[in-house]
Amino acid sequence: MIFETSGSTGQPKRIEHISALLRREAAFFLELLGRPVRVVRYVPKHHLYGYIFTVLLPELAGVPVEDARTFEEGYRAVKLHPGDLLIATPHQWQFLVDRGTVFPAGITGVTSAAACPVALFQTLRAQMRVLEVYGSTETSGVGYRFDPEEPYHLLPWLEAGDQGLEQNDHLRWTGPGTFFVEGRKDGAVEISGIKVYPGEVERRLRQLPGVQDCAVRAMTPEEGRRLKACVVCGREEQPAVLREIERTFRGPERLASVVFVAGVPRSPEGKPVDWAAFPCTGEANARQERPGERFWHGRIDR
Fold first, then answer.
1. Which pLDDT tens digit goes with each residue over 16-28?
2. Inter-axis angle of helices 238-248 and 198-206, to 10 degrees?
3. What range defines the domain where residue 284 resides?
4. What pLDDT, in 10s, does the model give residues 37-56?
5. pLDDT value, residue 170
6. What's the predicted TM-score (pTM) here?
7. Are 126 and 155 in the same domain?
């Protein structure tokens, strides 16, 4: 079977998986969690996480699936019942918590596709049993845990230290079958023949005065051959932030496009997604991107 990565760390890739191995994974998690009464899905079933937990697992368990998504990728108001198994991402779990969703006793939640913030994990644990699954489209499931303070447990057919498991993150092994995720690997890109690390540039950009949040990527071939950034800061702070960026990042690390945004663009799963590099000259100017959200664009490399 072929699944496509989200593109959160670069260009989307097509990854092939063996169907029998995915069924083995679904069977393992079914045994770990127990047979639910119903699966309620907030994730798309054509993504690997959704396919394992909302197609294969309920098929093996012989239980129905309630689709909580709308065609527009919003969420329907689904009445939850004891025995339900809820499948969502951290971004979706936060949405459910923020809107005051009542979780009845006796339900179980699964979170994956992005790191679950500890505070959110603890909020959910106070209301239900929560399983966090670590993995990626490239690796499928790698580990799981029920407590954000505890290490992940390696899936039983995998071996600790296998470099193939560390496609996107650095793992710190605490035993033959347990590990913590220590952070993403910063994939180098080549600019003017020199290796540059967008993740490191992003880390330093976050430290500049006035920057609330940001994301850094290599431009697409159509956009150019350098780095671009989207930055969250107050509008009155933008001129000073632009000057600080120009002063701080030089040579191959220079940010050829800086886009000021209301929030870093993210997918429904909560992962950063690409944004367009908008050329403009002079001072940053306003552009309406969508109702209720303002984007301001400034170009450094003129």
1. 999 999 999 999 9
2. 130
3. 189-298
4. 999 999 999 899 999 999 99
5. 81
6. 0.68
7. yes
